[in-house]
Amino acid sequence: MSGIIVIGSQWGDEGKGKAVDVFSAEADYVVRYQGGSNAGHTLNIKGQKKVLHLIPSGIFHQNTTCIISSGVILDIETLVSEIKTIKESGNYLNNPSKLLISDSATVSLHYHKVLDQARETASNNTKLGTTGKGIGPAYEDRASRKALLFYDLFTDEETLKEKLSKALSEKNFLIENLYKKKPISLKDTLNQILTLREELKHYRCQDTAFLIYKALKENKKVLFEGAQGSLLDLFHGTYPYVTSSNTVSGSALIGSGIGPGFIKKVIAITKAYTTRVGEGPFPTECSGEEGAFLQKTGEEWGATTGRMRRCGWLDLPALKYAVRINGITHLALMKMDVLSHLKEIPVCTAYNLNGKIISDYPVHSSKLSLSKPIYKTLPGWQQDISNIKKFEDLPTAAQDYIKLIQEETNVPVDMISVGPSREATIWRSQLF
Ligand code: GDP
Ligand code: IMO
Ligand code: MG
Which one of 34, 128, 228 would you pick to mutate in the ligand 2 pocket, going by the greatest count of ligand atoms within 8 A of its CB? Predict the structure, then answer.
């Protein structure tokens, strides 16, 4: 078994980009398997900040092959611009075989974004606070079997035009009549694809599932990089304030087309506190000074939309719920340094729902919004920990914070991140 699934355990932005980049030093393959350009994964390579939306976070390692599998929504405009930025920033993508894109990934185009954004502002719709990247409309197309798949982009111009024309007839009807927006031009869309496919053709892979299978059979080290977070899962998150894909670990199997027998570990990337972007209930959210402190110290604004992230304390019932629905075997605790200067750190250990104490996570939005967190307050460590390399060298209060998480979840914290750089990482066991 040489497959490791890496997922976010909260509402996204836990630090998956940094973690996967650090893990990739040991990986042969890194696979993105769901979500799309709604993701923003931040890496810090030799002091330089890099944000990836679609390309797997292993791309800055010379010996790692990156795969975008069929579960992903391919925003081809963002993808081409990301490829260009990476090529310009060094020798990272000089060989196109370092990035392989599944022929059966779902393509998203401008009209998906227009629809997504129109719905967000329509008066008769619930505002979800989406990223506006067209994720919902693109997954809808896949589910209703109308989507353009990556290989469709490479058919002859006439066939492509016909497919686009069919898609646009329905989309434009909605865009014009329901949302009162300007229709999307068939000619412009076609021309955009014809231009972009010249770059994208170098990365086509007919069957990424077979490739991943072969790699796993040969005991190659494969990381599956999740996007978003468990509480944004379409089925198991805080519906309807969720994304349109499954973000739990099982999605890695479906999105990349392999069976569960190859999986050695499920590592949950967990922020030492909690953040959320967009709408939806968030019981441990802090307003006032505490929220502003976390926001400022943690530099909490979105890597994709630039929106301020809402900030709050760590929610242990939510983390235990994530452990259950993902089968989490290990935790990577991120951004511990952000808590360094607090005198006291509250942690939610249970909820009060209509006068009853509950420790199970009330995931349904209607229940969650009525639930009041019950906190245990831990002493802070009030010293800089960003240069510490060993768990034993952390201040006792920081060790106790980590031990509480381990005891409550019954899952070991194997990696602790104390800063955005690769070096600011404390290991407690081997990865593979
Ligand atoms: P992702 O979507 O899960 O990859 O997370 P994002 O990249 O959207 O957001 C995480 C942010 O935290 C990024 O700006 C990272 O550079 C930063 N980050 C990651 N780990 C740490 C850490 O341990 N300490 C600090 N201070 N920042 C971190
Ligand atoms: P990464 O991979 C944080 C949130 C949006 C919104 C909801 C639905 O960087 O952790 P969507 O555009 O997906 O239809 O929006 O999901 N969201 C994220 N929040 N991190 C992300 O990705 C997110 N991707 C989507 O803010 O609340
Ligand atoms: Mg992010």
Answer: 228
* Positive or negative: CA dihedral 241, 244, 245, 246: positive
Domains, the chain, in order of start with CATH, read 3-70+206-427 (3.90.170.10), 106-203 (1.10.300.10)
First-to-last C-alpha distance (Å) of the chain: 9
Query: Is there a contact between 58 and 64 (Cβ–Cβ < 8 Å)?
Result: yes
| Closest listed residue to residue 285, CA positions, set 321, 238, 248 | 238
Beta strands 48-52; 41-45: pairing state: antiparallel
Nearest Cα neighbor of 93 from 135, 65, 127, 124 is: 65
75 flagged as catalytic: no
Of the candidates 6, 17, 146, the one whose C-alpha atom is nearest the C-alpha of residue 82 is 17
- Span 299-337, pLDDT tens digits: 999 888 889 999 999 999 999 999 999 999 999 999 999
What is the rounded distance in angstroms from the CA atom of residue 397 to the CA atom of residue 375? 17
Q: Does the CB atom of residue 334 touch ligand 2 within 6 A?
A: no
Find tokens 């991943």 and name the residue: 212
- From the CA of 427, how far away is ligand 2's center (Å)? 28
What is residue 305's predicted lDDT score, i.e. its pLDDT? 86
Res. 124 pLDDT band, cuts 50 70 90 = confident
pLDDT band for 1, please (50, 70, 90 cuts).
confident
